[in-house]
Every structure is written in structure tokens, then in C-alpha cells.
Design brief:
heterotrimer; A alpha/beta; B alpha+beta; C alpha+beta; B: alpha+beta; seven-stranded mixed β-sheet; about 35% helix; C: alpha+beta; three-stranded antiparallel β-sheet; 2 helices; 3 strands
Chain lengths: ~230, ~725, ~80
């Protein structure tokens, strides 16, 4: 199984993401933004960073790179599992592969902190993650306020696309635990084989770094890929 | 053009004419102006700095390069250095701080090392404008560090009116490299190609070094504003990747970043340290806007540029690497055997100078032995009356700017990227896990108030503080870097104050047997005749034995004994509490440097062999605030039951709030008390049992003073913006 | 007093580097567009009461000078909409 880590000029969490995948026993291959072919991959991660310096709008410039067209084809034609982390989330919304947009944090500042998340919807791509599960992971972003037009939120929840939410340590949802002004405290969204979150699972791989819940999330995803890939081959 | 137009004196001009045997043309005069500036030549500080100890068993390369390098393990070198960007940050705080981070990162890269951490030491005034500057500077540090992907893992902030018109922005960067990738500016050979990599050159920051950073602020400073440089962390990231890829492939003969005085200092310093000459065709330098003169091209401080020296055979590959990252790389000239900087524009010679005139022949102030000896003399100062102890005092100190939690600042920095940060900015120091190569401990400190009345004590105190911080996690110091910030060196008092600070650093570093491997001096931090306190920012890099499990900095376990480990002094001079409770700053206590080494060693060995449940260096706000910080990590379910032996209420204040050097607070199992006491007392340290860790969210002292967790944390965690009470 | 809309356009001075503009231009070129310069500014629309359009323009100009633009590196222009 090969998982592609798609990098753009300015990506900077690619090395951490490759390290995390390697720790999980998966072969990670770095995919340059100029690539046109992804059909040999089992899945792809768009890691965090400041692609193109976050200039114009975060994710907007990367979303126009050749590799994104290839990624769109792979998602549409082969249901390629894709995980976007932080800037990867922003790129996926800019590319139209996920609904909504990520706006500058409500308080106007970059925010790096530990944050508890709650799983709000289950997915075949994350077997083992149950609704209500709590995960503690770092956030580090300046533009993470998830926004979706008025009226569309209910549909997002009904379709199970509202995937992860920011909560307090006990898993309670309230405005005070919202670090960036996201609607409905949303931290992660999924749609079909594409999922993305603002927090950084690749930074939460070991207790000595503060938490190993990122390990839990990424291994669930890899299990999901194995099952889906296996299924497709049957 | 006149000498004063480039910041030179008439006497310096005479010297230039004497060296050259003719009058310099305008371009040549501009080059002298830049390289003979305070900022580039260290003309007022070099003789003082040369007295710092530079040698040590772990030193790979000391001062003189772009950064000091120490050996962490057999396979890993650590490059680190502190640099200031004070004046630009006052003019334009966001870009000033951002380009400060970018600049020191390129210094690290120029040693062939990949940056893995940044630390910032900031000083501001206390008025509304200062808070706006703080806001901008923090935004700028984050803007660059976050985007380029280097974590800001620790730092230090201080406040005083003395910094109102001269805020300090000192940034320390750390990088790692394999020893075989060692790189520097001193290895160029004649006949190699000079490649300018990175940003196109514009009219950014012309005269930044000679005028902005090398003289005091006054009315005219306003007009220097158009020289502001803008940082581009996106290009900075690409530039870093191109450069390090070339280093790893062994393609470069030598390497120098373009910082202050741009191409002028890069080409002259590279040539001089390699013992070669350089021939540069200025019309080949890619420009951002048309019509830059040779003078502007040589003095531009456009950011994100590197000068690579490449042999003919590697040139094609270097250009290909740059092209792959879409970074501009341009052949602008060659190294020669002449020892001269020889500049051409459209085929015509426009300057011809020996590089040693520019670099080595700058007039520098000398320091004689009596002057150096005199710097250690203690000033005659008086300390006022110490107020009686009362419980509100701790709340006042907890909420004071100097003792407050830095969280509102550091949470704007990405401190976790690169996934090595085991201890980050919420602790006294950073501990980074480097896998098979071990661990790196990094501490930064240097309270300005400690040097306000006695620069020597303040300089020595800052060195001892960072070393004591490393010792508290059992880390072995490899080297220190010093950032000296002071006033106008042309004034006797300011010069002497800087000298005393450096002397204090030198004596403490020598006593502790830790080399100073590099640093920075920023002078002219003076506005309308008012100088800042001489401020020494000291950074220490240490080898950590077990980075995945550093000693906790909390209260340990319920029932643990809480100890003060101290060195005898209870002088509360220059403490946060003295300022907050009395409004005065008296001299910081001097300490017996002879025993410093053995005390630090005793602590390090104790921590390594028999780690306590928790241990913290005694920090800003003294014993009282150190306990508060330990408590903050344990949380509201913990409490403390303490008693002080002193019945006298003034003595109690001294004991609870002094910041004298070489003190720690520890939590150990009660039944280990005798053993620990015996062990540490044998090394000349004293132990005071303060009490024990309890449950229940209250700290009780002597049965009559008490504080709730919630009250203390509410004060301590106030963000810096809330300063209305102090305006 | 009548209400006016004023638009303040803030741009970086020509001599100041615009990293965002440069990166955007690079991507536009990769997408196949022929473009020879991108400078990114800010567009700020103000609604304010004033006696005359001229006065509205003056007030908006002061706002720009004192807050909306950074005189260290930006220029601005004010347009009062009818």
C-alpha cells in the first residue's frame, strides 16, 4: 500500500506526515504538485503548511496546481481516499472537493494550542472511530473558521458530512471551546472518500509529544483504506 | 557625496583616503559607510567581545562565522545564534520582526544547517503604543516562523518604560546538520562562480545598517521609513530548500547570506574570510524595479537572498536545483586571487577596493586592561526598605507584566511543527527530541532589570539563570550565545554599562566553563538622549540525556516535600517584586562565581542519577511565582501547605520574592529528604524544606496567608493587552 | 446629514515588495494566463454621514491616513460614490 503525500511550494508539514505514516508501517511517497498521475496510489494526504505562502486566500493558489486535477479525477473515478490536514483542508475546499470555506480566525490571530475534538459522524473510511469519541490534538492555523452558507448546515449534519467538532476536555460543545469561530464548532468535514480536518494528527503520534490520539485517527484511516482497497479488489 | 551621508565621521574619511591613497568615489564611500558602521564592524564592541571565553570541548566553530556550531552527538552538529532587529521593529513592527526571524534563519542555513527552532526575547515599554508594538512584533515573528515551518519553542518577554521608544526584538535560531555538511563563508577558492540566489533586488532598506541601526532615534528617523523591508517567508522556504539541497549534494564551495548591507557585506566578508577577491558585474543582478544604481544594488537590503560560491563543474546542477524550485539563480561574477572587491556596471569599472580595508581596517575602539578590570567593580547603590509580607503581594506580582504567563504571545506561534517539541514555550526551557541523536535543551533569558543598576551582576546573573535552567532538566551545556543591547557607545556611561554587562557574561561563562560561541550587539538603543537598560539576552544550547521524559515542572505528587535549593543569598534587588511592590529597581545581587560550576554540576548529576518528581529553576517573581507556575501545571486539584522559618515579615518578603542566582524549587518524596539534603549540601547548596503538596486548590503559608488557585491563575493568565492599570 | 459611501483603496507603495502579488502572478502564468504584474491591495467601503461629498471624502482620507493605510509602506486613494 502506497500513500501519497501531496506537496506544493510552501508545504511544511510534509516531513512530519511522512514520519507519521512511516511510524504506522505504511509506505509514504511524496507527490510533487506538478504530477499528473495518481492512479497507482492507495490513498493521498494533503499535509499542512503555507502553500504559496497562504497568499491571496489560503489554499487558493495550490488548488489550481496540476496535481489537483489528477486528484479530482482519482476521487471521481476510483473513490481514492483523500485526507486533508490544515492547509490540506483549505486546498480541498478551494478545489471544490469539500463543501464550505475556511475563513480567517474570528479573533484575527494565528492560534497554536491543544484542542479536544469530538467525532460527530462515523464513516467507512474511519472504522473504529465512534460518534462521541474524544481526540486531543494540536491546532496551528490562522485561517480555520469553517463557514458554509446559511441554510446549508443542517444538510451537512444530516448527510454525516459534519465529521469533527471542537469541544472542551469533557467533550461538551459550547462557544468557549471554539478556537477560531467555526460554524457549529466544526473542525473536520467529510464527503465521500474525501475527509479533512484543521487539527494535526501527525503531531499527536506519541504521549511524550502531548497525545497519541493522532496515531489513533490515522490508524483508523489506514484500516479503512485497507478494507476499502481490499473490497475493491474482490 | 559627503562622509556624513553614509554615517562616517571626518576622521574615518581621512583614514579611508590614507588607506586607498586616493579619494573614494561615491560607490566606494557607500561601501565603507556600510561596512564601517557599528552594525557591521562592531567598532565599539569587538574588543570587549574578544574577551569572552570561546573555547570548549564541544565547539566546532565559534564567533566569526554566521553562527556558532557545537557538536551534539557524533553525527550531529548544532548551529545557533541570537540576533537583534530592534530598530526596524520600532519603525514597522510586523515586517521588522518578520525580517528579523528570516535573517537569523538564513544565518543558520548559511552554516549548512536546517533550522529546527526559533526563540524570541522581546522587551517593550508599558504604554499603549508599546502594547501596539508588542502586538505587531508577535504577529511578525509568527508570520515568518509559522509560514516557513520552524517552531518557536521558547522565549522571554520583559517590560519597562526604558524600552518605550526602543523596544528590543532579539531572535535566536537553532539548526542541525551532519558534520560532513559543514558549510561556511571561509572556504571559497579563486576562480569560482558567484551565484546570487533568491529575491530580485529592490530599493529595500538602503542604509539600514549604516544609518538606521547605527545611530540613535531622533526626529530625522521618521524620514528613514521608506527603507522598510518586507519579508517573504514563502520565498524564504524555497530559498532554504534550494540551499540545503545544494549543501547536501556537496555542490557549494562556500555560502553567505545577504543580511545587513546586502551584497556589500556578503561579498566583502566572504572574500575576506576565504582570502580571495571578487569580481561582480552589477548589471547582472536581477532587479525588481528598473533604474537601480550600482550604489543602490550594492546596499539594498532586499530579503531572501543568498550568495553561493560554486565551482565551474557544479554550476549547471546548482542552477537546475534552483530552477526546480522556481527560485531565481543568477551568475553575477567570480572569485579572484586579487583580494579586491572589483565592481563593474555595463562593462565599466565602478569600484575597486581591498576587502581587508572594508572588513579588517575599520577603526575599532580598543580596551585596555585597567578599563576591563574596572568593569567588574560593584557600583555604589542603595537598596530601600523591604516591605512587610502580606498575601496581596503575591497577587500583585502574579499579575505584573514581567511575571505574567506568556501564553497570549506563544499561542500565536506554531511551536509544535517538526514534531520534536517535548517541552515548549509553556515551560522554562525547550526540550527537543532528536531521535537517535539524543535531545537538545534550549533556554533563553536575560532580565533587563537585573542589569539596570549593576550591569556586571545582570550579565552574570543571566548566564547563571540559563545554565541553572538547563541543569534543572539534567542537560549539559554545550555553548551560549549572547545578544547585547545597549545605548549610545559614544557616551561614557552607556559604553561603560555595556562593558560591565559583557564583563559579567564573560566572568560567569568562564566560571561555569561554558563557551560563548557567537552573538550579536545592538547599540544606539537610545532616543532623545535616554538609553535603555543594558540588556543581555543569553541563549544556551544543551545536550539532553533523555528528551522523551524530561523532569516534570509541576508540583510532583500529593504528599511530596517541597524544597527550596539555594545558594545563600536572599537579596531581593532587581526582582519583579521589588519593582512591583516598591517601584524601585536596586542592584541585582552579585554571587560567588567560584562555586557556580560545582553547584550546577551537582544539580545536573542529581537530576540525571536520581530525578526528583519535579524541579524548576527559581524564575521571575522568585519563590512565590515559581510555585505558582508549578501549580499551574498540576491544576486546581493540587494545593500547597507551606511554612517559612522567618518570623520577621520583611525577611519573609525577601525569602518569598528574591531572584538571587542558582536557586531551584523541587518536589521529592518526603522519605528522600535526608538523602537529597546530604547530597546537595555536600556541594555547597543549601536546602530549605518549605512544606508539602496537598489536595484541594489552596496554597496556605504559615497557617495564615492563603491563596486560591482560581485567584492566582486569573491574575497570572491575563493577556498583555490588559494594561490599563499601568498606563 | 446625508449619508455617503466612500471607497478607500489601499495599495503597497510601488517600491515595496509584494510577496503575495508575486506568488499569485506565478500561478496565473502557470495556468496559462499572460500577465505582467500583480499587486494586491485592500478595498475598504465606508458608510458615513457628512454635509457634502467633499467633506465625506476628507473624513475618509483622514481615516485612511490615521488607520486604514500604513504610511510606512502603503498609499491610498479615496473615492466618494454618488
Amino acid at each position: 500500500m502506497q500513500i501519497g503525500v501531496v506537496t506544493f511550494p510552501g508545504s511544511n508539514c510534509d516531513v512530519d506526515t511522512v514520519k507519521a505514516l512511516t511510524d504506522l508501517g505504511v509506505q509514504a511517497v511524496v507527490i510533487d504538485y506538478r504530477n499528473h498521475r495518481l492512479d497507482y496510489l492507495s490513498a493521498a494526504i494533503i499535509p499542512g503548511g503555507f502553500s504559496y505562502g497562504d497568499y491571496l486566500r489560503s489554499g487558493a493558489l495550490a488548488a489550481r496546481a496540476p496535481v489537483m486535477a489528477a486528484l479530482r479525477d482519482a476521487v471521481e473515478e476510483q473513490k481514492l481516499p483523500v485526507l486533508g490536514i490544515c492547509n490540506g483542508f483549505q486546498i480541498l475546499t478551494e478545489a471544490g472537493l469539500l463543501p464550505g470555506v475556511l475563513r480567517p480566525n474570528r479573533h484575527g490571530e494565528f492560534r497554536c494550542d491543544w484542542q479536544t475534538l469530538r467525532v460527530a459522524a462515523e464513516s467507512p473510511y474511519f472504522p473504529g472511530l465512534r460518534v462521541g469519541d474524544r481526540l486531543r490534538m494540536p491546532i496551528a492555523h490562522g485561517e480555520g473558521a469553517y463557514y458554509t452558507p446559511p441554510g446549508s448546515l443542517q444538510a451537512l449534519f444530516q448527510a454525516g458530512q459534519a465529521w469533527l467538532q471542537y469541544t472542551d476536555d469533557q467533550g461538551q460543545l459550547h462557544a468557549l471551546t471554539n478556537p477560531n469561530g467555526s460554524v457549529a464548532n466544526l473542525a473536520g468535514i467529510q464527503q465521500g472518500s474525501v475527509a479533512a480536518l484543521m487539527p494535526h494528527p501527525e503531531r499527536a503520534m506519541h504521549r511524550y509529544l502531548g497525545s497519541d490520539d493522532g496515531h489513533k485517527l490515522l490508524s483508523a484511516w489506514i484500516d479503512g483504506i485497507r478494507q476499502e482497497v481490499g473490497h475493491a479488489r474482490v | 557625496m559627503h562622509a556624513s551621508d553614509v554615517g562616517l565621521t571626518e576622521a574615518e574619511y581621512q583614514r579611508i583616503e590614507a588607506l586607498m591613497g586616493r579619494a573614494p568615489n561615491d560607490l566606494e564611500l557607500g561601501l565603507f559607510g556600510a561596512l564601517w558602521s557599528e552594525h557591521c564592524s562592531y567598532k565599539n564592541s569587538k574588543a570587549l567581545l574578544s574577551r569572552l571565553p570561546h573555547e570548549g570541548p564541544h565547539v566546532v566553530s565559534g564567533p566569526g562565522g554566521n553562527a556558532g556550531v557545537v557538536r551534539l552527538s557524533q553525527d550531529l552538529d548544532v548551529a545557533f545564534k541570537v540576533e537583534s532587529h530592534n530598530h526596524p521593529s520600532y519603525v514597522e513592527p510586523v515586517q521588522g520582526a518578520a525580517t528579523g526571524v528570516g535573517g537569523i534563519l538564513r544565518d543558520i542555513i548559511a552554516m549548512g544547517a536546517r533550522p529546527i527552532a526559533v526563540a524570541d526575547a522581546l522587551r517593550f515599554g508599558t504604554d499603549r503604543h508599546s502594547m501596539a508594538l508588542l502586538h505587531g512584533v508577535v504577529k511578525g515573528v509568527g508570520l515568518y516562523g509559522n509560514a516557513i515551518g520552524v517552531p518557536t519553542v521558547t522565549g522571554d518577554i520583559g517590560f519597562s518604560d526604558t524600552y518605550r521608544a526602543n523596544p528590543l526584538v532579539n531572535v535566536l535560531a537553532v539548526g542541525i546538520r551532519r558534520p560532513e555538511h559543514a558549510m561556511g563563508a571561509n572556504t571559497a577558492k579563486p576562480g569560482q562562480v558567484l551565484v546570487l540566489l533568491g529575491q530580485r533586488t529592490g530599493r529595500d532598506g538602503i542604509h539600514g545598517a549604516s544609518l538606521l541601526a547605527s545611530r540613535d532615534f531622533d526626529e530625522q528617523s521618521h524620514e528613514l521609513r521608506p527603507t522598510v523591508q518586507v519579508g517573504d517567508p514563502f520565498l524564504g522556504k524555497l530559498l532554504m530548500e534550494v540551499t540545503l539541497k545544494c549543501v547536501e549534494e556537496g555542490l557549494l564551495a562556500a555560502l553567505q547570506d545577504l543580511g545587513a548591507a546586502g551584497l556589500t557585506s556578503a561579498s566583502a566578508e566572504l572574500s575576506e574570510s576565504s582570502g580571495v577577491g571578487a569580481e561582480i558585474h552589477l548589471d547582472r543582478v536581477p532587479l525588481r524595479e528598473a533604474g537601480l544604481t550600482p550604489y543602490e544594488i550594492m546596499l539594498s537590503e532586499t530579503q531572501e537572498r543568498m550568495l553561493l560560491v560554486v565551482s565551474e563543474e557544479n554550476l549547471e546542477r546548482v542552477l537546475a536545483v534552483a530552477q526546480d524550485f522556481e527560485v531565481l539563480a543568477t551568475e553575477i561574477g567570480r572569485t579572484t586571487e586579487s583580494g579586491e572587491l572589483h565592481l563593474f556596471y555595463e562593462g565599466a569599472e565602478c569600484a575597486r577596493l581591498r576587502t581587508d580595508w572594508l572588513v579588517d581596517q575599520a577603526p575599532r575602539r580598543s580596551v585596555d586592561e585597567p578599563f576591563w578590570e574596572g568593569l567588574a567593580q560593584a557600583p555604589k547603590t542603595e537598596s530601600g526598605e523591604v516591605p512587610k509580607f502580606r498575601s496581596e503581594a503575591l497577587l500583585e506580582v502574579a499579575g505584573s507584566l514581567d511575571a505574567r504567563s506568556r501564553a497570549s504571545v506563544y499561542r500565536q506561534y506554531d511551536y509544535m511543527i517538526q514534531t520534536r517539541t517535548v517541552y515548549g514555550p509553556d515551560r522554562d526551557l525547550a526540550v527537543l527530541d532528536l531521535g537517535e541523536d539524543g535531545g537538545l535543551a534550549l533556554a533563553v533569558d536575560g532580565p533587563g532589570r537585573w542589569a539596570a543598576e549593576d550591569g556586571y551582576a545582570g550579565g552574570a546573573g543571566a548566564v547563571l539563570r540559563v545554565l541553572a535552567t538547563l541543569a534543572a532538566t539534567g542537560a549539559e551545556p554545550l555553548g551560549i550565545t549572547d545578544g547585547v543591547n545597549a545605548g549610545n557607545p559614544d557616551k561614557t556611561d552607556s559604553y561603560r554599562a555595556m562593558g560591565a554587562l559583557i564583563r559579567g557574561v564573560a566572568d560567569a561563562a568562564r566560571a561555569a566553563e561554558v563557551p560563548v560561541t557567537g552573538g550579536n550587539v545592538s547599540l544606539h538603543n537610545e532616543t532623545d538622549g535616554e538609553s535603555i537598560w543594558p540588556t543581555g539576552v543569553i541563549g544556551a544550547a544543551g545536550r539532553h540525556p533523555h528528551p522523551k521524559s524530561p523532569v516534570p515542572q509541576n508540583l510532583g505528587k500529593v504528599g511530596d516535600a517541597i524544597l527550596l535549593i539555594h545558594s545563600g543569598s536572599r537579596d531581593w534587588g532587581a526582582s519583579v517584586a521589588e519593582r512591583v511592590l516598591t517601584g524601585r529597581v536596586s542592584a541585582y545581587p552579585r554571587t560567588d562565581l567560584e562555586n557556580a560550576k560545582s553547584r550546577l554540576k551537582a544539580m545536573t548529576e542529581w537530576v540525571r542519577e536520581n530525578p526528583p518528581h519535579a524541579l524548576r529553576v527559581l524564575g521571575d517573581g522568585g519563590l512565590g511565582m515559581t510555585l505558582v507556575r508549578m501549580w499551574a501545571e498540576s491544576g486546581p486539584s493540587f494545593g500547597l501547605q507551606l511554612s517559612l522559618p522567618e518570623k520577621d515579615l520583611q525577611e519573609k518578603t525577601r525569602l518569598f520574592f528574591n531572584e538571587a542566582p542558582l536557586q531551584w524549587v523541587a518536589a521529592i518524596p518526603m522519605d528522600k529528604l535526608a538523602e537529597v539534603t546530604r547530597r546537595l549540601e555536600a556541594s555547597g547548596l543549601a536546602i530549605l524544606l518549605l512544606g508539602e503538596v496537598t489536595e484541594g486548590g489552596m496554597m496556605v503559608l504559615d497557617g495564615r496567608y492563603q491563596w486560591s488557585y482560581a485567584d492566582l491563575m486569573a491574575r497570572w493568565r491575563k493577556p498583555y493587552e490588559e494594561v490599563h492599570d499601568e498606563l | 446629514m446625508p449619508a455617503f459611501h466612500a471607497v478607500v483603496t489601499v495599495e503597497l507603495k510601488e517600491s515595496i515588495l509584494d510577496p503575495a502579488g508575486e506568488a499569485t502572478q506565478g500561478v496565473l502564468k502557470h495556468m496559462g494566463f499572460s500577465v505582467d504584474g500583480v499587486r494586491i491591495g485592500r478595498h475598504i467601503r465606508l458608510t458615513l454621514e457628512a454635509e457634502t461629498a467633499e467633506e465625506a471624502g476628507q473624513v475618509a482620507g483622514r481615516m485612511a491616513e490615521e488607520l486604514l493605510a500604513n504610511p510606512v509602506m502603503e498609499t491610498f486613494r479615496v473615492e466618494v460614490l454618488a
